[in-house]
Design a protein that fits this description.
Largest sheet: 2 strands, antiparallel
Strand content: under 5%
Order of helices and strands: EEH
CATH superfamily: CofE-like
Oligomer: single chain
Strand order of the largest sheet: 1-2
Distance between the termini: 16 Å
CATH architecture: 2-Layer Sandwich
Number of domains: 1
CATH class: Alpha Beta
Number of strands: 2
CATH topology: 60s Ribosomal Protein L30, Chain: A
Shape: globular
Helix content: 10-25%
């Protein structure tokens, strides 16, 4: 329950960041980690903008930790057989 910001479009930011094969803090290689970077960015912006009478229609983001690139909306739409919410 609760309102959460989610991505409804992409422009110049990665929808997903594949971290499989990179090392974690302890040197173990990640095997399944795919970061929903666009959704995480949208959720953080939503938190800063507020949901009621805050009057902040825009959030300026600095320090995005992943390389910017062109992306497509279809990279964040889960295939039906992998979607736990349908």
């Amino acid at each position: 329950m609760g309102t959460v910001g989610v991505t409804i479009g992409l422009a110049g930011v990665p929808g997903l960041v594949d971290l499989r094969g990179t090392a974690d803090l302890f040197g173990f290689k990640l095997k399944v980690t795919m970061v929903g970077a666009a959704d995480e960015l949208a959720a953080a912006a939503s938190l800063m903008m507020g949901q009621a009478a805050e009057g902040k229609p825009v959030v300026h983001v600095r320090g995005f930790p992943y390389e910017l690139r062109e992306s497509r909306l279809d990279e964040i739409i889960r295939p039906k057989d992998m979607d736990l919410f349908r």
